[in-house]
């Protein structure tokens, strides 16, 4: 436990277990890529909900300091509610490396039923450790297939050997391919891997880049795994466009690699790291000519993982897919205007051609998540823009503190 955290007593144990329907106080959720953008916010929301968390991250696109930011925010939240502060452990490792077996062995325990097979304190895994850049996947497809697909196969096999069978997978709206261009909200049924309807076989159309194909292949592999072994409980969450950051300004998006998503790129323009924002295409068949996307606050995305973890035990299905989207779309230009309103700064734009792999319209139908997970996004684009600006201002203050102190 973290120093200063309340002791788990008989009195509060029952309340804690109500929050964790199938978890005991000595169990953990393992989060791969847990110091990255979405992974760090998911780790925070898990701890705020009362879950112990183990983070695996190789720091190739993140920073170790994020761990302490998660810890700080989770501790403040739990103290404010008078609840025990869950444990947060960190292991620096590539999820594909031999080190993962050593790490999992640390959490293996003798079988409760006296059998020969070890059980694990790790009750569930949330997997974020994938490469995610569309342009880089086109330039380096083998790297993407190796890390995203081959790595997943080895990892799932390893988890199964430790009797860890609850798995939440970070997927993407890119699996819908050219179906996004129908200009209709995308439903989970638009891309299926196993179907009980003989007239509706597994289908995919027009996957536009290697990144999208890796996500589709991983989904298909996981569907096959779940169909082959009833012990597995696998949830696939298809993200649309995560934006924003924790409203405290303490936790945000700070990749080591060059960002390609709209919000962090605009952040670099606002902080002087870029001269202007490149907007890819002004001739899309949309209301202002710029591409329309379904933007969702990253905290809402993170809460979707907590909901998936809570609800998978009640549904009892081995494999289920959910969109995490708002159900409404905003154009790139509309988002830029929201950021200008939040910051009071005009954002210079340069218009360029469409990028390979892009689509003009990509919006989620989210009725399934709302009905089955009791999840809907609650933070709008305006607040997301304010949260980003708050984060950028705090980062600037932190960078100037040493100079000010001298």
From TrEMBL:
Residues 29-325 form the NAD-dependent epimerase/dehydratase domain. GO terms for molecular function: UDP-glucose 4-epimerase activity. Keywords: Isomerase, NAD. InterPro entries: Epimerase_deHydtase, NAD(P)-bd_dom_sf, UDP_G4E. One of its GO terms (cellular component) is cytosol. It comes from the Eukaryota. GO terms for biological process: galactose metabolic process. Its cofactor is NAD(+). Pfam families: Epimerase. PANTHER family: UDP-GLUCOSE 4-EPIMERASE, UDP-GLUCOSE 4-EPIMERASE (EUROFUNG). This is NAD-dependent epimerase/dehydratase domain-containing protein. The lineage of its organism: Eukaryota, Fungi, Dikarya, Ascomycota, Pezizomycotina.
């Amino acid at each position: 436990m973290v120093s200063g955290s309340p002791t788990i007593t008989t009195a509060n144990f029952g309340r804690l277990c109500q929050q964790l329907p199938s978890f005991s106080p000595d169990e953990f959720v393992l989060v791969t890529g847990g110091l990255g953008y979405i992974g760090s916010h998911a780790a925070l929301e898990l701890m705020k909900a009362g879950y112990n968390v183990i983070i695996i991250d190789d720091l190739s696109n993140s920073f170790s300091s994020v761990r302490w930011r998660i810890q700080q925010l989770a501790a403040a939240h739990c103290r404010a509610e008078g609840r025990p502060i869950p444990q947060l452990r960190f292991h620096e490792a590539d999820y594909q490396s031999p080190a993962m077996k050593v790490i999992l062995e640390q959490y293996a325990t003798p079988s409760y039923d006296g059998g020969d097979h070890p059980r694990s304190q790790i009750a569930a895994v949330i997997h974020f450790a994938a490469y995610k850049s569309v342009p880089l996947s086109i330039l380096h497809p083998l790297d993407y297939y190796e890390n995203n697909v081959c790595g997943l196969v080895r990892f799932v096999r390893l988890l199964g050997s430790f009797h860890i069978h609850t798995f939440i997978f970070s997927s993407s709206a890119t699996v819908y391919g050219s179906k996004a261009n129908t200009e209709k909200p995308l439903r989970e049924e638009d891309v299926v891997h196993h179907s009980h309807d003989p007239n509706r076989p597994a289908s995919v159309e027009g996957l536009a880049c290697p990144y999208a194909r890796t996500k589709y292949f991983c989904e298909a592999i996981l569907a096959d795994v779940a169909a082959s072994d009833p012990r597995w409980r696998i949830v696939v969450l298809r993200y649309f466009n995560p934006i924003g950051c924790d409203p405290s300004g303490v936790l945000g998006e700070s990749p080591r690699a060059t960002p390609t998503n709209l919000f962090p790129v605009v952040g670099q323009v606002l902080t002087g790291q870029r001269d202007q924002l490149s907007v890819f295409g002004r001739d899309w068949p949309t209301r202002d000519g710029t591409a329309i996307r379904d933007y969702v606050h990253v905290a809402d995305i993170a809460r979707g993982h907590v909901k998936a973890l809570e609800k998978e035990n009640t549904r009892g299905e081995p494999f289920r897919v959910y969109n995490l989207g708002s159900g409404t779309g905003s154009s790139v230009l509309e988002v830029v205007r929201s950021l200008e309103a939040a910051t009071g700064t005009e954002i210079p734009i340069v218009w360029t051609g469409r990028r390979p792999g892009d689509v003009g319209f990509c919006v989620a139908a989210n009725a399934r998540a709302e009905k089955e997970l009791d999840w809907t996004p609650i933070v709008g684009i305006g607040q997301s823009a304010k949260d980003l600006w708050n984060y950028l201002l705090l980062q600037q203050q932190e960078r100037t503190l040493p100079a000010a102190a001298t």
